[in-house]
Write a structure and sequence with these properties.
binds alpha-D-galactopyranose; eight-stranded parallel β-sheet; eight-stranded antiparallel β-sheet; alpha/beta
């Protein structure tokens, strides 16, 4: 599906030019060999780093036989055909609209909960898998624990017809029928697009078709849109992001259907300051999460300064859950789930809920933990105490209780002792509930001490 344009020039014994797909525009800076057998290597700067691709190829008649050379050697054999000069160039730029505040859609009064295809399935998601996931959301108890949205991420998109209407590709034969199926399970369904001409994976974006796509989504019965900057990088400056996101915010409202609006632009240009003004219900606060302790702890423990920006209807999104994807221990997944709940983060599971261990199901559906995440007051926790790799975060809840999370970021187990006053609790609590052990604990004075496993957490609800 991904169309790559190579614009190659032979200059003496060098090959120069560009390689482009979607938001990727690489400039060739190294080459060896000639038309019979060449290797080109090209680079592009993105998000403060350099990405690089290498191709090996040879010219056979008018065709170019090619393979991309990855870390594991050459990829599949491909053939590039000559196209008319200009094909593959970026579409003309559409000026972003003047800014105005978009009306609040009234949705997501607590952080959205659901599932998304990307973390586990990436481009392997299809209609049958989404149906299977919807079934499993019900049978596993995920739906009843609050996970409502079943969200299809990138790679569902097909082509536009002569009227410009977007159609799904062959992996999704009938989007309306799929939405009906998901709805019949008591669930809601989400979809994905980009304000650019292409998505991150090189599929059709909503560029120049915002209102039309919003109407199409509404007609299919879509309840949630994740809108990913991706291909817009090539056409717009960071300073134009707000106006570009506002366009889809307006379009979703105009569609007449309740559609949660999820902004995905990796936390650039202080999105938490303008996300609500474009009609956003949630916004990513950083780059993509990975299924590793390093990624989860780096993202999760750095959200402190954003606490003032989250509130009912408008949430900081540190990215989707990796719980159950296999790269971490159950202890680490418990920390991931606890931290996201303390942060009032959207809880969008990203694992294969059709096959999860009882331990993973128990982590994702722990209702006492979910109740912290979903607390009506919508306050994001703050770090209130830190000593080396030990941290306490606390969060005031709507009923006057306080959620207290005692984290041990070190790899070895630790006994952590703290004073309630340090956790923002002025008096010795009358009731302490351990939300992972589902047990009430004794309070015996102004200090408290807990055993916390390495990379683990003790999560308390204190009265
Ligand atoms: C970006 C997003 C991810 C995912 C992919 C899909 O990287 O941040 O969450 O949606 O695009 O291409």
């Amino acid at each position: 599906m991904r169309r790559t344009y190579l614009h190659l020039k032979q200059q003496g014994d060098r090959i120069t030019g560009t390689i482009r797909w979607t938001l990727h525009l690489y400039s060739i800076d190294k080459s060896t060999g000639g038309p019979d057998n060449f290797t080109v290597s090209a680079a592009m700067p993105i998000l403060g780093t350099e990405r690089r691709v290498t191709y090996r190829g040879r010219l056979v008649g008018a065709d170019l036989q090619l393979a991309e050379i990855g870390a594991d050697g050459p990829g599949p054999a491909m053939v590039a055909h000559r196209v008319p000069e200009g094909e593959g160039a970026l579409p003309p730029r559409i000026e972003p609209p003047p800014l105005h505040p978009v009306r609040d859609n009234g949705l997501a009064r607590t952080p959205p909960m659901g599932w998304n295809s990307w973390n586990k399935f990436a481009n392997r998601i299809d209609d049958a898998t989404v149906r299977g996931i919807a079934d499993a959301m019900v049978s596993s108890g995920m739906r009843d624990a609050g996970y409502l949205y079943v969200n299809i991420d990138d790679t569902w998109e097909g082509e536009r017809d002569a009227q410009g209407n977007i159609h799904p590709n062959q992996k999704f034969p009938d989007m309306k029928a799929l939405a009906d199926y998901v709805h019949s399970k008591g669930l809601k369904i989400g979809i994905y697009s980009s304000p650019g001409p292409d998505t991150c994976e090189g599929y059709e974006g909503s560029y120049g078709h915002e209102e039309q796509d919003a109407r199409t989504y509404a007609a299919w019965g879509i309840d949630y849109l994740k809108y990913d900057w991706c291909g817009a990088f090539t056409l717009y400056k960071d300073s134009e992001m707000q106006a570009v996101y506002q366009k889809m915010g307006d379009a979703l409202l105009a569609s007449g259907r309740d559609i949660v609006y999820s902004l995905c632009q990796y936390g650039l240009v202080d999105v938490w300051k303008w996300g609500p003004a474009v009609g956003g219900n949630l916004w990513r606060t950083g780059t993509d999460i990975r299924d590793s302790w390093d990624s989860v702890s780096r993202i999760g423990f750095s959200q402190d300064r954003l606490a003032p920006y989250t509130r009912p209807g408008h949430w900081n999104d540190p990215d989707m859950l990796e719980v159950g994807n296999g790269g971490m221990t159950d202890t680490e997944y418990r920390t991931h789930m606890s931290l996201w709940s303390m942060l009032a983060a959207p809880l969008i599971a990203g694992n294969d809920v059709r096959n999860m261990s009882p331990a993973i199901r128990e982590i994702l559906t722990n209702r006492e933990v979910i109740a912290i995440d979903q607390d009506k007051a919508g306050h994001q926790a703050k770090r209130v105490w830190q000593s080396g790799q030990q941290e306490i975060w606390s969060r005031a809840l709507a009923d006057g209780d306080t959620a207290v999370a005692v984290f041990n970021r070190a790899p070895q187990d630790a006994r952590i002792m703290f004073r309630w006053a340090d956790a923002g609790i002025p008096k010795t609590p009358s009731c302490i509930r351990d939300l992972w052990r589902h047990a009430d604990q004794e309070a015996s004075g102004p200090e408290y001490s807990v055993e916390v496993p390495g990379h683990g957490v003790v999560l308390l609800r204190v009265h």
